[in-house]
Specification:
single chain, 137 residues, alpha/beta, Oxidized Rhodanese, domain 1, five-stranded parallel beta sheet, two-stranded antiparallel sheet, 6 helices, 7 strands, 16% strand
Length: 137
């Protein structure tokens, strides 16, 4: 069966339908308690670090964690006072994920333009998993 729509077409459609935030915009929002930064990258990508204070929600589980009827539901996602800002490596998967969450009915979701790579280029705060664990200890 031939592919009728490329991955880049899907990303472009998602980008046209979701709110994309610049790194500068997200940096200015970091101190707001209603903002929840969400890393949707694969767990293997976390070895390079993540945005300080972000929550990890792998793309492969996102819909299940958001859906209150799912046995995998995570209550964090039901908090309508939160604004969830998703990011991935380059901003493609997070655009697709934000669109999916919008399709599920969420309106309090956006994503970071350029993803983690842009965040690092702009000097946004990052931490390794080891640093995160040490803070919790």
């Amino acid at each position: 069966m031939p592919i009728t729509k490329s991955s880049q077409q899907l990303v472009a459609e998602a980008m046209a339908q979701v709110h994309t935030r610049s790194v500068s915009e997200v940096l200015a929002m970091l101190d707001q308690p209603a903002v929840q930064i969400v890393d949707i990258r694969d767990v293997r990508e976390l070895k390079d670090g993540t945005i300080t204070g972000s929550t990890h929600a792998p793309r492969c589980m996102l819909e299940f964690w958001v859906d209150p009827e799912s046995p995998y539901h995570k209550p964090m996602w039901a908090d309508e006072s939160k604004h969830f800002i998703l990011f991935c490596g380059a901003g493609w998967r997070s655009a697709l994920a934000a669109k999916t969450l919008q399709d599920m009915g969420m309106r309090n979701v956006s994503h970071i333009e350029g993803g983690y790579a842009a965040w690092v280029r702009h000097g946004g705060p990052t931490e390794t998993l080891e640093q995160r664990k040490a803070k919790k200890a």
